[in-house]
């Protein structure tokens, strides 16, 4: 059984480890560590909302969000490599939609690396549209948004 809970200060190391494992596959693709691998998760847990998917007492996935006045920004989605391909990323996106709507927000936004083609496809299949792209550190940042009902 998988449950959702908010990350706490004592989860910072586990969050950091999950993110590093989840993003490790992209290091050879872009030739560097993706930005989420470099984040300060002590500060992120304090300053943002990080919701964890926990299965059998283990953190298996997470979503980090930041509420803005007119949209909810998805800062990070990470799924343990052992649990990728099981629909957890899509479930986390639905969780973000519910979170946004509960806060009276009707748009989700996120950024991703253009080289992360599987992620771009996932977001597009979940209703996100590419707003724009721009060069970043030798690659391309893809800005995406999804309008929610309301």
From TrEMBL:
Stored Gene3D superfamilies: 3.40.630.30
Keywords: Acyltransferase, Transferase
PROSITE patterns per the UniProt record, alphabetical: GNAT
Statement: the UniProt record of this protein carries the keyword Acyltransferase: yes
A UniProt-annotated Pfam family: Acetyltransf_1
Single annotated GO MF: acyltransferase activity, transferring groups other than amino-acyl groups
Residue ranges occupied by any N-acetyltransferase domain in the UniProt entry: 2-149
Name of the molecule in the record: GNAT family N-acetyltransferase
Upper taxonomic lineage: Bacteria, Pseudomonadati, Pseudomonadota, Alphaproteobacteria, Hyphomicrobiales
């Amino acid at each position: 059984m998988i449950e959702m809970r908010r990350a706490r200060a004592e989860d910072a190391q586990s969050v950091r480890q999950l993110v590093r494992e989840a993003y490790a596959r992209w290091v050879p693709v872009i030739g560097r560590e993706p930005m989420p691998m470099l984040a300060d998760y002590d500060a992120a847990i304090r300053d943002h909302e990080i919701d964890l998917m926990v299965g059998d007492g283990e953190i298996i996935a997470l979503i980090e969000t930041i509420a803005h006045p007119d949209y909810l920004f998805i800062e990070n989605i990470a799924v343990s490599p052992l649990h990728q391909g099981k629909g957890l990323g899509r479930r986390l996106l639905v969780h973000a939609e519910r979170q946004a709507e509960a806060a009276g927000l009707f748009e989700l936004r996120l950024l991703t690396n253009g080289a992360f083609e599987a992620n771009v496809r996932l977001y597009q299949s979940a209703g996100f549209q590419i707003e724009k792209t721009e060069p970043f550190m030798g690659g391309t940042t893809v800005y995406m948004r999804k309008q929610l009902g309301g």
